[in-house]
Amino acid sequence: MDILDEFTKAQRELADGERKTVTLRRLYDADVEDVWQACTDAERLSRWFMPVTGDLRLGGTYQLQGNAGGEILRCEPPSLLRVSWLMGENPGFSEVEVRLSAKDGGTLFELRHVAEVPPEFWDRFGPGSVGVGWDLSLLGLGLHLSGGEKVDESTFHLTDEGRRYITASSEAWGQAHLAAGAPREQVAAATAATTAFYAPE
C-alpha cells in the first residue's frame, strides 16, 4: 500500500468560526455495515484506533485509553454516530460526528470535529493540531479494512513514509486554514509547529 496514495484519498475542510470545525471525507472500499462495525465495536476499534472502555450505547459513556472520553450523544446504525470528545480537567465544547453512506460500491466516510479551542493554542497550531491526528486515524481505518497491519504510532513518525505522510497532512491542513481566511504567515508558522509536534526530529 502506498501511504501517500492513501493520504490523497481524503478531502479536508475547515470552518473557522467561534467554534472550529474540521471535516474529513473519504471513500472506503467496504460496505457500510463493515465500516460501521469497525467504528463502533470495541474489539475492532482497538485493532486500528485505540482501546476503548465504557457503556457503548446511546446515552452511555466511553473512554479511549490515554485519550478522549465522553458521552454517546447519537447512535443511528449504520449511518450516524456523535459523541462528546473531552480531554483534560476543564474541557470546552468538543464533539465528533461520523456519518456513513453507500457510494460507488463502497462507503463514504465523513468525520466532523467541532470544538471550542483556546485562541493561543489555535494561533500556535491551527487545524493541524487535530487534523493530523484524524488523518492518521483514517489511514489506520483504511489499513484495517483492507486487512493491513496497524500503524505503530510510537515509531511511525521515525520512518520515511511516516514523516512524508505527517508532513503532507500538516501542509494540507495549512491549505485548508488559508482557504478559511487565515493570514499566510500565521499558517506557515502553525504548519511548521504542527509538523514538529507530530514528527519531531
Strand-helix topology:
Layout: H1 3-8, E1 10-16, E2 20-28, H2 32-40, H3 42-48, E3 52-54, E4 61-64, E5 69-76, E6 80-84, E7 94-103, E8 106-115, H4 119-125, H5 128-145, H6 160-179, H7 184-198
Antiparallel strand pairs: 1-2, 2-8, 3-4, 4-5, 5-6, 6-7, 7-8
Helix pairs in contact: 2-3, 4-7, 5-6, 5-7, 6-7
Describe the structure.
- This protein is 41% helix and 28% strand.
- With 201 residues, the chain is of the alpha+beta class.
- The chain has a single domain (3-198), classed as START domain (Alpha-D-Glucose-1,6-Bisphosphate, Chain A, domain 4), CATH 3.30.530.
- The chain has an 8-stranded antiparallel β-sheet with strand order 1-2-8-7-6-5-4-3.
- The protein is globular.
- Belongs to the AHA1 family.
- Residues 29-138 form the Activator of Hsp90 ATPase homologue 1/2-like C-terminal domain.
Identify the overall geometry. Answer: globular
Structural class: alpha+beta
CATH superfamily: START domain
Mean pLDDT: 95
CATH architecture: 2-Layer Sandwich
| Total count of domains | 1
Rg estimate, integer Å: 16 Å
- The end-to-end span amounts to 25 Å
The spatial strand order of the largest sheet comes to 1-2-8-7-6-5-4-3
In N-to-C order, the SSE pattern is: HEEHHEEEEEEHHHH
CATH hierarchy class name: Alpha Beta
CATH topology: Alpha-D-Glucose-1,6-Bisphosphate, Chain A, domain 4
Tally the helices: what do you get?
Answer: 7
Which tags fit this structure?
8 strands, alpha+beta, 201 residues, 7 helices, Alpha-D-Glucose-1,6-Bisphosphate, Chain A, domain 4, 28% strand
